[in-house]
Each structure stands twice: as C-alpha cells, then as structure tokens.
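Progress narrative, work stream C.
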Amino acid sequence: MKALITGITGQDGYYLSKQLLEKGYEVHGLVRRASNINTNRIDPLISEFRDEGKIQLYYSDLIDSSSLTNLINKILPDEIYNLAAQSHVAVSFKNPMYSTFTSTVGPITILESIRNLEKDIKFYQASSSEMFGGAEKVVLNEESLFEPKSPYAAGKVFAHNITKVYRESYGIFAVNGILFNHESPHRGETFVTRKITRAVGRIYHNLQTNLTLGNLDASRDWGFAGDYTEGMYAMMQNETADDWVLATGETHSVKEFAEKAFNHVGLNWKDFILTSEKYSRPNEVHHLLGDASKAKNILGWEPKTSFDKLVKKMVDSDLDLANREKVLIDKNLMTPTWEYAT
C-alpha cells in the first residue's frame, strides 16, 4: 500500500507516517520548500525507513496545482491524506489570502487529480472543529451547523463541502475528519498548549520568567494527536466514505490546562502567567465540545489518552527539552532566543 501525505512534517504528519510505516505502507510526503530544513519531526522516521525505500519526500506546495497533480500521477498512491494547511487560526487573520488558498486550492486539486485517474484512490480531508464557531455551549457532532469565525475556519468549510461534492457526484472514496483540538509534544510552539508546556519547562529550569497569553477562559476539547491519527486511518478503512467527528467529549479551559501544567512541576500558574489583548483573536471561538459517538459505534475508535496524561506527557517532554537547552547555554554553545525573552 502507498500513501501520500501532505503536511507530513507537521504534528499529525509525524504520527500518521509512523503508524502507516509500522503497518508496512510505503509513505510519500510533500514538503514545502524553505530556506531552512524543516523535517525535524520526521527525521527519526527518515533515518529508520529511508534505506528500505519506505519513505520518500518531494518538494511541492498545495497552491502549486501543476506540481501537485504531477506528483499524484507519478506516485499513484492508494490513499491520500491532506493534512497540510496554514493551520494557525490567529495567523489566518493576519495572512487571510495565503491561509484560504492553502485550505481550498489544495483539496480541489487533489480531488480533480483523483477524478481524472483510472486508479481508485481514497482521500482524507483534514476538517476542523473550528468550522463550528463555538458560539454556544453545546455538544457538536457531524450534523451540527458550521459557523466559521476565522479565515482558517472558512477555508476549511469550503474544503469540507467540496470533498462531499466530489464524493456524492463522482463516487470518490473521500472522507472528512472533523477533528477537535489534538496536541502532543510535537505540537508547534506557537499553539497555546505547547506555549504553556514549553514555558513550564523553561521556567522550571530558570530560562524564562513568565508567559503572556490571551483569553484564559476559552474552552477546548483537547485530545492526543497520536490517538486521532489512528482515527484517520480507521476512517479510510471503513467500507463506506463518510464524515466523522473525533473528540474526547470533555472540554477544558486554557486556564485549566495552564494550572495542571504548572502543578505538575509544583508551581502555581498565577505566579507566572500574564494576559494581554494582543493575543486575543478578532473573533473569539469561546467553547468547543465534540461528540464522537458515531466514530465509536461504527469505527470502534475512542481516545486512549486522558486530559491529565496529555498534559503530563507534554510537560515531561518540554522539561527534558529545556534541560538540554540549559546545558548548551551553560556551556556557551547556545544563547536564549528572543521568543522566550519574557
């Protein structure tokens, strides 16, 4: 089996690639060209599997339709997982054109490529709980209405709907995974959960004095990314293509996450966290809570990692990272970076 993964260098790309490789898949991944090498998350997988020819990377971009189409025609994968996007919601307000292009042009290019090939190719589209808007404190499932409150979410709604259009119009096996927030030690450092655990590690090792956040009362349904990529795979192996919510069924505030993270190292979060309107969104999503009953009943999927274990896993990883950073600083082999000046 061959799988093509866009966004292979991201958090979900790492966990999905690892799981597919362990199942014996040949994994092909798209990497966006940059001046710096950005494969650090998947470097261990590259080292382990590249000599066997099991993992191959290609330079491409979701908004480069011709390059994307040529690669699909060359690779002829059995499954395509579209995980790539400009996925930071706050950044999508600052860069709405690029954020929207990556969320819309990429999926429709892939779906057109699949439609025009004789080979049957399964397609996974990474939808998002941000599409729901979170205006009310309700439990959300596959039938809930979308009310996007950011350019990122609006682009995801288009991609979600066009995936359904191609599924219903052309009989393509195309699924939408509506994933609620999922985190891990591989989460990008600009996302709030990782900002918190990164700061905990650095504060504990005296490399940082405080952390500034935005809305502490925003609530999210947070799970572990590795559990959710298993859910992606299960969707693609189901007999029929459909839309699926993956969620834990619990919601926790940013404040709760911070409190648990600091408590894990015996510190009081109130002594270190500041707030600023600078980090608030123009149109806040206040509350997200998902119902994954359909995935549980049909796919047999449910999250394995509790909220407490997720926080502990992330803090422990960032304690180790901060300790290694401190060793380098003490040896004058590294200087503190500007991102952590506060």
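Work stream C, second folded protein:
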Amino acid sequence: MNIFKKFIFGLIFSLSSLSFADVSLSGNIALTSDYVWRGMTQNAGDPSVSGGFDLEDDSGFYLGVWAANVSADDDDTVAGSGSMELDGYLGYSGSFNDDAGYDIGYIAYTYPNYDSWDFEELYLTFDFYGVYVSYAAGMDSAADYYEVGYGIDAGPGAFSISYGDYDGMGSNYLIGYDWSVGDFTLGFYFADFDADAGPSSDQDGGYFTISY
C-alpha cells in the first residue's frame, strides 16, 4: 500500500493549499453486472459495487478516491475469493472553447492484500466535438494504454464507442448507451477484448450498470 500512502500525503498537502469556498464535493455509487475495465473483466463475470468521492476546485484542479470489489485468489490470479480495488487520483482539467478541452492527471491503482498488483499511471486526454483521445503512461514497469472514442446524444440518452490498445496485453472496443433518469444513469454496454496472448485469453460480452 505504499503507493496509496504517498497519494494520501499528497492529498493532504493539496487540500491545505485550496480555498474551501471554491471547492465542491461530490459522490457516486454504482452497481454493475460485470466490472469490465479496458475490455477485461475484473470480477470474474460477477456483479460489482463501486463508489467514490471527488473534490473539485473552481480552477479545474480535482482529486478523489474510488473503490470497487474485484475477484482474486491467494495466488494472485483473477477469479475466486473477494478482494478490493482502491484508487486515488488527482489532476487538472480545462477547456480551449465550448467544444474542446483537456484533462491531465495521476492515478494510483491499489489492491489491499495484493500489493503485487499495485501500479501507477500518468494520463492525458483531449476531447473535441465529441471525439476524445487518451493516453495513459504506465509508471515503472506498468504498461502504456491508448484509447480513442466518440460520443453523441441519441434520443433520451447518449451513444458512445471506443477503441483501446494496452501494450503487451491486447486491444479492446466498447459500444455503449447511457440513459439518464433523474439522478440515476442506466448504462448498457458490449465489450470485446482481443488478447495478445491468443484467442484462448480473449473476452467479450454485454453488461449493464446503474449509477447514482
């Protein structure tokens, strides 16, 4: 948990420099039929509950924490007994105009009791007219990730599609539809992952989320 401890100390330092009159706090919680990340299931195809908190300054600076249950065995392989993913992140987002913006930041992925899974990334995203391009640079021995996507309003919700490539692991695409109903959002998705290790490691399937 050394990564997360470093993040917490950085969080405290960052908070001390903010004017709380300019800071907003928000929270989120979600239930998903399968926690899929970059095309790969993180919960062996079982439902997962997640949630987090975010602090955002009017200047565009933000920081937050997020957690979800994931599956893990004692031998550090996915599937089996329960475990947890606990992430901490901070960054800065801004806009060039009404239709274009950027987001740059740092995220630490941590797994209590499975420290060998911990890793960190620096990320950068540009979005313009519904299109976004994102790059996550893995720190130390972590792999890099690239993604491009597009979203558009469609009926009562929004349609999105994306394609990503995870160095040394595989590529994925995602098709989704998000429908907002009051403070809730219903999401319906289909993900496909083509593993570099070969067809036996490929994954695909649909899942849905309910978030608040």
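The first helix runs from residue 2 to 16. No further action is required on this item.
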